[in-house]
Amino acid sequence: MVEVVGWGSLPASCVTEAREGMVVYTESDQVTEARSTILELLLANHPDDCLTCDKAGRCSLQDFSYRYGIRKGPFLGERKAYPLDQENPFILRDMSKCILCGKCVRVCSEVVGRNVVDFSFRGFATKVATPLNCGLEEAGCVFCGSCVEVCPVGALSEKQMSGRGRSWQVNSVTTTCPYCGVGCQVNLQVKGNRVVGAKSAGTGINGKHLCIKGRFAYGFIHHPERLTRPLIKRNGQFEEVSWEEALHETGSRLREIKELHGSDALAVLASARITNEENYLLGKLARAALGTNNIDHCARL
Amino acid sequence: MTNSIDEIAGASLILAIGTNTTEAHPVISLRIRKALQRGAKLIVVDPRKTELAELATSHLQLKPGTDIALFNSMARYILGERIWNKEFVAERCEGLEGLRESLGEFTPEYAQTITGIPAALIKETARAYAQAERATILYTMGLTQHACGTDNVLAVANLALLCGQIGRESTGLNPLRGQNNVQGACDMGGLPNVLPGYQQVQDEGNRKIFSGAWGAALSDKPGLTLGEMMDSALQGTLKAMYITGENPILSDADSNHVQKALEKLDFLVVQDMFLTDTAKLADVVLPAASFAEKEGTFTNTERRVQRVRKAIEPIAGAKPDWQIICALAAELGYPMKYAGPKEIFEEITRLTPSYRGISYQRLEKEGIQWPCPSEEHPGTKYLHNQTFVRGKARLTPVNYMQPKELPDEKYPLMLNTGRRLQHYHTGTMTLRTEITQIYGSEKLDINPGMPKT
Ligand code: SF4
Ligand code: SF4
Questions:
Q1: Which atom of ligand 2 is closest in space to residue B27's alpha carbon?
Q2: CATH of the domain at B207
Q3: Chain B residues whose beta carbon lies within 8 Å of the beta carbon of residue A273
């Protein structure tokens, strides 16, 4: 909210159009006082949970309270208390922390086009809810997570990231989603040598948006079935071997076959999943080192 | 894609053919919704009633495999009604008369008998497409994954050319590519007939440039395609394969055929993150690092080259693919030494005209769309603005063929494959994530109208 000279009330800046000759103050006494009161009112109906809240450190309510020096407010009274909704594997919903800003409602209806949640009930009982309070999945949620991305507080959060690190302990690395050809920009959340989460990068073609795969399907990275040693099959059984041995075996077998049957008895399958640099090297390896144009990948399927 | 993803939101008409966009390209579907909010028309051509079809202004629910009949009849109607873009065709296309002749029998009424779409709807669609201010066509495997896939695309291209709905902002012909780097793998020459940048291997000049840069003589004989590789392996002429990051046993049609072919090889090397069904058949398996463990670039469906950044060290024992390939080259007596992916990329840009102006430095903030011929070039938002690659575009007559396999008494049903929102491709990755908690195994959708036999 801002102060406009000559206006009686403080308009919300996001829905007020600028006009010729308008004089606007964004941080006047009147503005800061109003903001402080609003924050006090919000905090009066907000759990004291910053100590364990995963949003701490990137929470707008925290940040603005800090900015305006709001401590425990003068307003006391009943607080809403809803059970934590942990029913689905991706989005934790802690509606006791909801400040009813409506961002999640709008992103779901206006951008994602799903209308999974909306305001229900009235007055103090107002709550962002699914139809009949059913689970998100049942309500038609596709778990794109855009609501989590826009929620300014800890009301909506990524379940997989819960308790995995405080915001300031986590590094963010911008990279490209490894799934479909859209190429969304993802911020991988890294703690130690582990990927503990993913958020949209806010840039690129996707902006704040991702789909369920880009946002929630990174668990394969640290999956126990990841291969960690090269394998050579002997008598029908895989044996773990060193890199030297595996590479040497591969090199000598390929050379042997090339000498015996010619270069065109060899073929390479490149991949639509690995990087440009790697595909380039595979082409170079096939054509220059093996001497064949037998290289393809599954683009034609 | 001839256009950018963002431009979809600016189209006044979207013709979506065989694309289940909300599931296969979820974030692109947001642009379609935006276009709809701005008043665009959406026409969906799909045998299935997808979510997109439910959003559509009209749904042309054709019988599987009858695409050419539909698009030919639209072209014929547009010519008959004289609503084609005469200026565009005269200036930028050739072959109009040949096309006109080839369309003789394809009246919308005739097409109705083949496709099952009412003739009136075909006419209405043709008119709307021809007269739209900015019409864009989106398509995916629903159009291409047929025995006549290439012809299907040609039939659609004819429409775009006839109506001049290409080469302007928000008008074009846009295949939405499936995999994160399928565009890049093609750009980099991961194909049997072309070197990086789609430079033909049969062209002596191209070979000279590359053999100079690579210090080796290059074969002028186009190689085998994936399908031909499998056939040659079965025949015994192909003896060894090196497969990286693919699981053809699951992803290729006819699993049994592929399995037999791979088993017949004298030597099979598979490089992957997991012991996939394909890797299980290998003689040597090399553990590769994931995207989060390496540097590099992917090129997305709108030709945008974007950075992949290393978030963590490779998990114990695995190596990034580029390092494995270099180490293997050394074993083959052809050392390839690079300090890292950046140096490889620099070599790529020297040899690939469409990538020439791109560098890691320029990619730091955001991706760049090729062609980008020089360092000053901003990249290319949409293609074919002034001319086509070959000069004038050819309108190509396309014959309609019945699908190769039609339901018969023994096999009375038609099975259509497709993408699920929740999972990706063969599931090597997504089946090892929390997603399995809501979607654990593949499901079969059955038409409720199907007799319960
Ligand atoms: S975005 Fe968060 S705070 Fe705002 S209404 Fe939704 S749940 Fe509540
Ligand atoms: S987040 Fe979803 S839409 Fe975006 S690139 Fe990844 S898989 Fe595709």
A1: 3
A2: 3.40.50.740
A3: 179-181, 245-246
